[in-house]
Write a structure and sequence with these properties.
This protein has 513 residues and is of the alpha+beta class. It contains 18 helices and 23 strands. Bound molecules: glycyl-adenosine-5'-phosphate. The site of glycyl-adenosine-5'-phosphate has 19 residues, from strand 10, strand 13, strand 16 and helix 13.
Length: 513
């Protein structure tokens, strides 16, 4: 646990030190759970968004994109169920006056039991060495099975109570488990209450005519209300998808874990409209496709797992999360939801406008079913960033900090470094830079010794360093150094473009899917 916390602290400080993420309004002591992306962060974020857009929109003939507004007619949120059901169960501690999400307190309690399971697994793995079979151990070790049963019992009771809105039982569970305020240890709790997560705002200048609005808590509704516009103007035939990326806002109570849970965040969502009755097949297909997209980035298959939901949202007939192993454990990264015809039917009812599709093959109209894939861009950023940050021991007894970002996502693809600031080397380096910048985002650095500059680029995540030295003046060759292997190779300037391209071309990455 302490090791995980240390690693997470390193992620936070590295993100700040290397210009990836800053606390919002830091000079005013920041705003809780609101963050700004800095000069490198904005590039990484854009590259993740582009990688998603390429895979989801441009590689599918039957998926198109839109960019809907953040502000929507308030009836949207009545129809979608968010006004009535987008709530979190909250509990206050009477002594510390701190507010918590009741379900998160219980989940954290279970995470501690899970940590005990992991400890047993690690101990056994050490004891049995090569012969260790993790699956078998998890299924047969008495202590571990007991721990797992305890987790299952707690979570299923919590799920059932939340489903029934039985908040008294949620409180009873907290009391039975003797869960204490994590900050003070006090067990003096209030009742559990529901709290709506939408941010309200007003449209219009005068107090009596102003209209109450909400900042959208998900981008999906902008797609549902535009379903027929896109279908008709794009002459889309079912099955087809509409995708978008954009900001969403939630007044999260337990806002913590850096950019994992923010109050203002960005989603990348795709709604796939299908014939009723085929949704289960599409749901399975999108689960597979989305996992493949993640795996294409090469961040380790062992770091992902599916979590199928027992407790379904009001709109879903099936739902699963793709969970990722963050520094604080496996947590939701992306959701895949079979949303039935709930949203289109609800908007039809509340707007009085027909939102149906005429199927020429079947010669009839129907309300399509929807399978949604929904990933938080900031969460994906944290997954990539935390997974890439490594402290590496070197052969000479020293160590280096290296940010092994997948090159396709790295903010800068190469740094151009003249060995010294004289003898015409900066001029040649600038010429290389001026040529490469048409194709790649590249960085120029001539300050400090070259070894120090290599380390800076390793820590910033730049996959290649290109060094211009005196030999360059004679034979137009440079040294290209690979971030991950630290291997250096002498190549001709003219070869650089192709070498870098081979490592960062989107085609080469997406074809691993
Ligand atoms: N349209 C469905 C929907 O919004 P969700 O599970 O509430 O479903 C989808 O959110 C994804 O959005 C999550 O898997 C997560 O990656 C991201 N997300 C949700 N709340 C977030 C928050 N407060 N901060 C950052 N990302 C968040």
């Amino acid at each position: 646990m302490a090791k995980q916390e240390d690693q997470f602290k390193k992620v936070l400080s590295h993100a700040k030190e290397y210009g990836y993420v800053f606390q919002s309004s830091e000079i005013y002591d920041g705003l809780s759970a609101v963050y700004d992306y800095a000069q490198n962060g904005v590039e990484l974020k854009k590259n993740i968004r582009d990688y998603w857009w390429k895979a989801m929109v441009q590689m599918h003939e039957n998926i198109v994109g839109i960019d809907a507004s953040i502000l929507m007619h308030p009836t949207t949120w009545k129809a979608s169920g968010h006004v009535d059901a987008f709530n979190d169960p909250l509990i206050d501690n009477k002594d510390s006056k701190k507010r918590y999400r009741a379900d998160v307190l219980i989940e954290d309690y279970c995470a501690k039991i899970e940590a005990k399971i992991n400890k047993e697994v690690n101990k056994a793995a050490k004891r049995f060495g090569e012969a260790f079979n993790k699956e078998e151990f998890l299924a047969t070790n008495g202590r571990v099975v007991g721990y797992q049963e305890k987790i299952n019992t707690i979570l299923s009771r919590m799920g059932a109570s939340l489903e029934k809105e039985d908040l008294l039982d949620v409180k009873a569970l907290i009391e039975e488990l003797e869960i204490a305020d994590p900050l003070t240890g006090s067990r003096n709790w209030t009742e559990v209450k529901q709290f709506n997560l939408m941010f309200g705002t007003k449209l219009g200048a005068s107090a009596d005519t102003a209209m109450d609005l909400y900042l959208r808590p998900e981008t999906a509704q902008g797609i549902f209300v535009n379903f027929l516009n896109v279908q008709k103007t794009g002459r889309m035939k079912i099955p087809f998808g509409i995708a978008q990326t954009g900001k969403a806002f939630r007044n999260e109570i337990v806002a913590r874990q850096f950019i994992f849970r923010m109050r203002e965040f960005e989603q990348m969502e795709m709604q796939f409209f299908v014939k009723p009755g085929t949704q289960k097949d599409w749901y399975d297909q999108w689960k597979t496709t989305r996992l493949k997209w993640h795996l294409s980035l090469g961040m380790g298959a062992e770091n992902y797992r599916f979590h199928d939901h027992d407790k379904l949202a009001h709109y879903a007939d099936a739902a699963a999360d793709i969970e990722f192993k963050f520094p604080f454990g496996f947590k939701e990264l992306e959701g895949i939801h079979s949303r039935t015809d709930f949203d289109l039917k609800a908007h039809e009812e509340f707007s009085g406008k027909k939102l149906q599709y005429f199927d020429h093959e079947e010669n009839k109209s129907y309300t399509p079913y929807v399978v949604e894939t929904s990933i938080g861009l900031d969460r994906m950023f944290l997954a990539v960033f935390s997974n890439s940050l490594q402290e590496e021991a070197l052969e000479n007894g020293t160590s280096r900090t290296v940010l092994k970002l997948p090159p396709i996502l790295a903010p800068y693809k190469a740094a151009i470094l003249p060995l010294v600031k004289k003898d015409g080397l900066p001029e040649v380096a600038r010429k290389i830079m001026d040529d490469l910048k048409w194709d790649f985002n590249v960085f120029y650095d001539e300050k400090d010794a070259v070894g120090k500059r290599y380390r800076r680029q390793d820590a910033a995540g730049t996959p290649f360093c290109i060094t211009v030295d005196h030999q360059t003046l004679e034979d137009n060759s440079v040294t290209i150094r690979h971030r991950d292997t630290m291997e250096q190779k002498r190549v001709k300037i003219i070869e650089l473009k192709e070498l870098i391209h081979a490592e960062v071309a989107v085609k080469n990455w997406l074809q691993r899917m």
